[in-house]
């Protein structure tokens, strides 16, 4: 399975100290630290678009 | 990295999201241990147990930890933990957090955080199972059922709740009354009562995916989830169809297939209903829901569509696409979208433009290959006629109404160029707006849409959609162009 590298919390705590500090600062309300940059949307409706109609099987 | 590489080729996007959720877990643990004032009204024994379990998790073998923490639910958990902690000092609750509070009956961020910290035990339980190590909870874990045990195919199934004391000697120990539930790859032989079942795992080359609806059985996710209670037999029944759809992606869109290997964890299959067809949640990376039965080629296009929502959510972690403005680009349902009946946020339109480009390419590859049967070829041609027109309207809407950051503008310019290329490609294949519309029946069959015995065309239905849904008249120019093309 090509899942990429494993991560370790011990290694991350050494290699990503600045990002951990930034996240902690954000939790504590530092205005220079954004809380979480990614957009959040509970659900993105997808799949078959509405202009493709769902037909009744009785039309088979 | 060029904008196109960033949009389509960067398979590291999934790993970066995983790393970020690991970083956030460390930050949450540090915030909880260093600032007891932040969580002052939360029972100290609860915080201490979380920190004890965190320390145990932090010492785990990286492969075992990664297997568990890569689960879509881990991202959901850690992001809520960050937001609830911030809310304890006054940050406003987001939509997901508000829905979470409503569903669990919490009246304050501290109450929600207390509940949420208890939910961390599911990851400790999973790590015990994955690593074969015993773990005991000081306060038993009250799990709401069904519970997808993170990173594993195991699902704890029963009436409503289970009181879990821990995991030891290869079994989950539950209380009230005390029982031992062995965890094995064959699952429980019982068909009722509290039990551990095993969901299907579908493998296609190096893609391996769980079919597990319980992954979506979490509070606040914003998706109606009654269907998650269906027996796992429904997933087994359609596992072959999922394998066929993955094979179609491998054959017709190998670059997406390689991304599936890196980023896809769980698909949940649901039967047809009138509430939702297919759906992806930004908070469950690597997971989506699809309705079956379906034609396997159409299901493959749904997989490509849904998976690319995941990919774009991952790209969004790199930085904001939209400048702050007086409208809510993320949730404000303000603008016409050629894909849905109701007005949509600009963020939703951006997602639609992004995900339909690979769907167009997929149908183009299937149509060019020349082996499609009559019904599938008709559906492919309908998609090739419809998608470029929708992409152009979507891009126009974004350009008219959105204020992008330099990062967002760069990516939208690349998407706009690809939308143009789709139009050129469809024309080169002789596809026009007079192509018949193909509907999908609830059993997944493909049939032409007829009115008074006459086939309805793509151009007609696009115009009808504009008439009915462009209630603000934002797309009058596109409507005129479409009408002219139809008459040309």
What does this structure look like?
- The complex is a heterodimer of chains A (60) and B (488).
- Chain A has 60 residues and is of the alpha+beta class.
- Chain A is 30% helix and 8% strand.
- Chain A has helices at 9-15, 17-27; strands at 44-46, 54-55.
- The longest helix of chain A has 11 residues, at 17-27.
- In chain A, 32% of the residues are buried.
- Chain B is α+β, with helices and mostly antiparallel strands and 488 residues long.
- Chain B is built from 17 helices and 16 strands.
- β2 (54-55) of chain A pairs parallel with β13 of chain B.
Give a brief rundown of this model.
The complex is a heterodimer of chains A (60) and B (488). Helices cover 30% and strands 8% of the residues of chain A.
For the biggest β-sheet of chain B, the strand order reads: 1-4-5-6
Q: Mind telling me the C-alpha Rg of chain A?
A: 22 Å
Structural class of chain A: alpha+beta
Question: How many DSSP helices of chain B?
Answer: 17
Q: Tell me the quaternary state.
A: heterodimer
Topology:
The complex is a heterodimer of chains A (60) and B (488).
Chain A: H1 9-15, H2 17-27, E1 44-46, E2 54-55
Chain B: H1 3-9, H2 13-34, H3 44-58, H4 62-69, H5 72-88, H6 95-104, H7 109-119, H8 121-131, E1 135-144, E2 147-148, E3 154-157, E4 161-168, E5 171-175, E6 179-182, E7 195-198, E8 201-204, E9 207-211, H9 233-237, H10 239-252, H11 254-263, E10 266-270, E11 278-280, E12 287-291, H12 296-316, H13 346-369, H14 374-401, H15 406-428, E13 438-441, E14 446-448, E15 450-451, E16 454-455, H16 458-469, H17 476-487
Helix pairs in contact in B: 1-15, 2-5, 4-8, 5-7, 10-11, 10-12, 12-13, 13-14, 13-15, 14-15, 16-17
Key attributes of the depicted protein:
heterodimer, A: 2 helices, B: 488 residues, alpha+beta
């Amino acid at each position: 399975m090509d899942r990429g590298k494993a991560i370790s919390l011990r290694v991350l705590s050494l290699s990503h100290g600045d990002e951990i500090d930034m996240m902690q600062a954000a939790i504590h309300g530092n205005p220079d630290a954004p809380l979480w940059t990614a957009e959040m949307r509970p659900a993105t409706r997808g799949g078959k678009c509405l202009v493709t109609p769902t037909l009744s099987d009785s039309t088979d | 990295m060029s904008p196109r590489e960033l949009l389509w080729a960067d398979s590291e996007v999934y790993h970066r999201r995983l790393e970020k959720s690991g970083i956030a877990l460390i930050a949450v643990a540090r915030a909880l241990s260093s600032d007891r004032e932040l969580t002052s009204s939360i029972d100290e024994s609860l915080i201490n147990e979380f920190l004890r379990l965190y320390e145990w998790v932090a010492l785990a073998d990286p492969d075992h930890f990664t297997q568990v923490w890569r689960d879509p639910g881990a991202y959901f958990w850690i992001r809520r933990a960050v937001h609830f902690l911030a809310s304890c000092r006054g940050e406003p609750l987001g939509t997901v957090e508000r829905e979470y509070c409503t569903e669990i009956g919490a009246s304050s961020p501290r109450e929600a955080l207390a509940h949420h910290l208890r939910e961390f035990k599911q990851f400790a339980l999973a790590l015990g199972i994955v690593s074969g190590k015993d773990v005991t909870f000081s306060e038993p874990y009250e799990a709401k059922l069904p519970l997808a045990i993170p990173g594993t195919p195991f699902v704890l199934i029963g009436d409503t709740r289970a009181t879990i004391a821990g995991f030891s000697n290869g079994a989950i120990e539950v209380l009230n009354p005390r029982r031992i539930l062995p965890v094995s790859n064959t699952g429980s032989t019982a068909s009722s009562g509290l039990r551990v079942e095993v969901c299907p795992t579908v493998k296609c080359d190096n893609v391996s995916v769980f079919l597990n609806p319980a992954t979506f059985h979490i509070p606040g996710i914003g998706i109606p989830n009654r269907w998650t209670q269906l027996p796992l037999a429904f997933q087994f029944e359609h596992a072959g169809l999922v394998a066929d759809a993955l094979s179609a992606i491998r054959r017709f869109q190998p670059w997406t297939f390689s991304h599936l290997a890196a980023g896809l964890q769980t698909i949940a299959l649901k039967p047809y209903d009138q509430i939702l067809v297919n759906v992806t949640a930004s908070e469950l990376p690597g997971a989506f829901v699809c309705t079956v039965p379906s034609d396997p080629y159409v299901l493959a296009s749904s997989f490509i569509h849904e998976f690319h929502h995941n990919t774009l959510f991952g790209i969004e972690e790199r930085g904001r696409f939209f400048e702050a403005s007086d409208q809510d680009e993320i949730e404000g349902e303000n603008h016409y979208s050629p894909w849905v009946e109701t007005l949509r946020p600009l963020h939703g339109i951006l997602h639609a433009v992004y995900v339909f480009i690979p769907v167009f390419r997929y149908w183009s590859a299937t149509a060019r290959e020349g082996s499609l049967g009559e019904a599938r070829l008709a559906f492919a041609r309908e998609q090739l006629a419809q998608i470029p027109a929708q992409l152009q309207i979507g891009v126009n809407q974004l350009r008219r109404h959105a204020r992008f950051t330099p990062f967002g503008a760069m990516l939208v310019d690349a998407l706009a160029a690809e939308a143009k290329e789709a139009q050129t490609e469809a024309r080169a294949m002789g596809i026009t707006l007079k192509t018949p519309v193909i509907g999908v029946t609830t059993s997944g069959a493909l049939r032409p849409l007829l009115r008074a015995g006459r086939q309805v065309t793509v151009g007609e239905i696009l115009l009808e959609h504009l008439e009915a849904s462009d209630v603000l008249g934002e797309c009058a120019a596109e409507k005129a162009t479409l009408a002219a093309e139809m008459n040309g």
